[in-house]
């Protein structure tokens, strides 16, 4: 079943074009990666799905319902979680408060406590540091916190913007092992990832964006074997 479907998405920043024509599908249970160089439109696409910026054209459908035009809280309450670029944490608040804020859009607030325990089981580092201020956490810990906060909305679709950016290799490994585990439990994932190698290892399928347009798509293994992808994105050939 198709969970997320984007058709001919267009996003403008004033007179500037953020995304010109992006179309993609994510099936339930799939891991889909968005690839492309800086400025290709990956962040803009994820933020538009999350309702953080308005679409100026095209459509975004989630679980059969149009969600473009809905505000961010309405999108989260439909169980789409985003771990955003730059994390957007409340740096003066504790780890636990940041996590609990992720549960705010839940219709049934009694679910927050078990979700919190689940996030702590997934990221024991966050449990150890539950009272620490988010602003004093390391980059890797902040990334875990941003993903943990997205999980607090009990997402059916987890969107991750550059989950490996700026992290030490050992932390990247922990992050991806964790994401593999969540995928194994049935979670659907859409991620933007600078590291094409990493993305194609983890994803089932991927879309390549170029100046705001989807220009290529396929299974991760087909794309990894594609000479164009190898030359432009994998530094081979
Ligand atoms: P990166 O990996 O560098 O974040 P990206 O693929 O995520 O790149 P976007 O950040 O979505 O790309 O940017 C797509 C286009 O939209 C770029 O041309 C960018 O300059 C523009 N853009 C993004 N945010 C804004 C903004 N707030 N105001 C104006 N233009 C913007």
Automatic annotation (TrEMBL):
ABC transporter domain location: 4-236
Gene3D superfamilies for the chain: P-loop containing nucleotide triphosphate hydrolases (3.40.50.300)
UniProt xrefs under PROSITE patterns = ABC_TRANSPORTER_1, ABC_TRANSPORTER_2
Q: Which UniProt keywords apply?
A: Amino-acid transport, ATP-binding, Nucleotide-binding, Transport
- A single GO molecular function term of this UniProt record: ATP binding
| Example GO BP | L-amino acid transport
Pfam families given in the database record: ABC_tran
The UniProt entry, under InterPro entries, shows: AAA+_ATPase, ABC_transporter-like_ATP-bd, ABC_transporter-like_CS, BCAA_Transport_ATP-bd_LivF, P-loop_NTPase
- Can the keyword Nucleotide-binding be found in this entry's annotation? yes
By sequence similarity, the record places it as follows:
Belongs to the ABC transporter superfamily.
Q: What is this protein called?
A: Amino acid/amide ABC transporter ATP-binding protein 2 (HAAT family)
Protein's organism: Enterovirga rhinocerotis
